[in-house]
Amino acid sequence: xxxxxxxxxxxxxxxxxxxxxxxxxxxxxxxxxxxxxxxxxxxxxxxxxxxxxxxxxxxxxxxxxxxxxxxxxxxxxxxxxxxxxxxxxxxxxxxxxxxxxxxxxxxxxxxxxxxxxxxxxxxxxxxxxxxxxxxxxxxxxxxxxxxxxxxxxxxxxxxxxxxxxxxxxxxxxxxxxxxxxxxxxxxxxxxxxxxxxxxxxxxxxxxxxxxxxxxxxxxxxxxxxxxxxxxxxxxxxxxxxxxxxxxxxxxxxxxxxxxxxxxxxxxxxxxxxxxxxxxxxxxxxxxxxxxxxxxxxxxxxxxxxxxxxxxxxxxxxxxxxxxxxxxxxxxxxxxxxxxxxxxxxxxxxxxxxxxxxxxxxxxxxxxxxxxxxxxxxxxxxxxxxxxxxxxxxxxxxxxxxxxxxxxxxxxxxxxxxxxxxxxxxxxxxxxxxxxxxxxxxxxxxxxxxxxxxxxxxxxxxxxxxxxxxxxxxxxxxxxxxxxxxxxxxxxxxxxxxxxxxxxxxxxxxxxxxxxxxxxxxxxxxxxxxxxxxxxxxxxxxxxxxxxxxxxxxxxxxxxxxxxxxxxxxxxxxxxxxxxxxxxxxxxxxxxxxxxxxxxxxxxxxxxxxxxxxxxxxxxxxxxxxxxxxxxxxxxxxxxxxxxxxxxxxxxxxxxxxxxxxxxxxxxxxxxxxxxxxxxxxxxxxxxxxxxxxxxxxxxxxxxxxxxxxxxxxxxxxxxxxxxxxxxxxxxxxxxxxxxxxxxxxxxxxxxxxxxxxxxxxxxxxxxxxx
Length: 770
Ligand code: BGC
Description:
Elements: H1 5-39, H2 42-48, E1 50-53, H3 74-83, E2 88-90, H4 100-117, E3 125-128, H5 146-152, H6 155-171, E4 176-177, H7 201-216, E5 229-235, E6 249-250, H8 254-270, E7 275-278, E8 282-283, E9 286-287, H9 292-302, E10 308-310, H10 315-321, H11 329-339, E11 344-345, H12 350-362, H13 368-384, H14 404-417, E12 419-423, E13 436-439, H15 446-450, H16 462-465, H17 472-480, E14 485-487, E15 490-493, E16 502-505, H18 507-515, E17 519-525, H19 543-553, E18 559-564, E19 580-583, H20 591-599, E20 659-666, E21 670-672, E22 677-685, E23 691-701, E24 713-722, E25 727-734, H21 736-739, E26 741-742, E27 748-749, E28 753-759, E29 762-769
Parallel strand pairs: 1-2, 1-11, 2-3, 3-4, 4-5, 5-7, 6-8, 7-10, 13-14, 13-17, 17-18, 18-19, 21-29
Antiparallel strand pairs: 8-9, 12-19, 15-16, 20-22, 22-25, 23-24, 23-28, 26-27, 28-29
């Protein structure tokens, strides 16, 4: 089609009209909210600021569980939704997934009761953690977890996956998702590293925005019944604990907080995300839920966040009971609300929160304006979700739920995420006639492929719901026929008790079976976990699994180590004896199929590590580090271990083909401050099969005056596909923001001087001038 001036004019008129009507809608909503605020009592407002968990209103012997099958308790509903005017409910009951039909029944009844009992007919906003698919919905499409999505380095796939999750969440009558996770996964010890996009702020920013676009839509029109409100979490600096354990103190300087932890949140706020959840931890001695500087000054004022700020689980009472910065529950409520919290995920003892907050307002210790600000934010999200007009979404309107097309999107993500870390003598791909032994505790488990937040909080109920999908064993059997496959577990996870308990399970038999096969597929890693239950004392892979690896290697048979783990457990005690290593992360319900296709050459791997894989427990430094981490051994004097020598590097990932990089060019060697730099590089497929390659562009600021510069930082990346012999020139543009850094005072600095641009092994230098 020829584009004429008329076409352009029509587009401009269209866009202007759409913008004008969106603005009009916003003004109308604002008016409705203000009118409502004038009519609401203090008690009703406080109710809107309160969130309870579903078990509180489920029929049961107490508030902490419900009878099965789940039904709602009319008396408890009357008290919570009527007498206390509660405005929000979260979570599933009994920590178990429900069908879309059951969700519809339950939430419709909650909405009906709430609207009936509420003087202003305000519906409830229901929220659930749908971090890699509709977590608590049976039959939903489970995607690879975020850490794997980061390895795929493909924002389009992330956006598509998030759009499917939004659709299936609405098919479950749920309009609010507690995701994406935008914490920086910079500590391999941390139990929630796999919930993040890995250790790089730029990567997390790009993929976070892609996820917002998928969940909320690019226009953030969450009134669309196929979209949900997203909740960025956990603001701010959650994974950076000193001990590596969940919800323990962090010490983060102002410059580090802004340089590393803030960018992904800022990008997602700029992308229009409607809600945000707060870090349950403590930074520089101050619990974040009581930190006015972070919640109000930074988030609401500086970043201009207009949405709803919700606490994490029980984090107001934690100020009193755990962190002891408040001598009573009442003081804890005062601290949190005055710091800038809008809604309390109580989630059980709502009377304590509501009664205390009402009293605090009456005593003048919490200002009425603070309450109005909080309720205004909450009501705006409810209007934006169109809950007043359409409080429910019915599964019958979501025919694509769990469809083949959705499953394919999950498979595609897994196929692009799985990362080939080692391939000695090109042992992979294997021939389909190979006789394999499959062994290891992760070989025949849907639970470990998915990780936690899958049909239940810790993932322990996965097998109940995921029987129709293929474990690694089943996928390999489908790929090469059962006759070619022997399976002996060797080591198994205990399914009860502590999450890491393991036992030797026919280890001797596995060694015998190894001798009778051509290749061993050794599936090691972790069982599922998140939050406190995932805290860890030893980053080495378990002793039993290490023993299995060593005994198998003594047979002399080639071993393909398949890792299935949420964080990089150290493998240096036996890595050298492994012929190939494939990292699957937590690849979801189709991870087994994608892996089998990679092992036997139907798919060429293209995943890249989203973190640094440590070689030793005392060397867990990420690729973003200061020059002093790389002090080389002094010649013949002392034997110090201060060099930077991880097992695998951020960005590592092999292919069945090879890529050559050439012609790194920059358009200026003297760049004037404020201008952009154009960079290009040519990539050639120098091997024999078509492959996808991720081109990473890093920069270095050679000298920086306020704080020591990082050795290098990722500034751009692009995933391309090349046929054998084909070349492509990839263009990037570096902006002043990419060359600046945060100084000691928390302010952005752009300094003249020498910079370097790096792509693969190529390097170019330029000088930034006034
Ligand atoms: C987690 C959050 C989650 C919340 C609600 C908390 O324990 O830290 O990530 O959104 O529970 O389930």
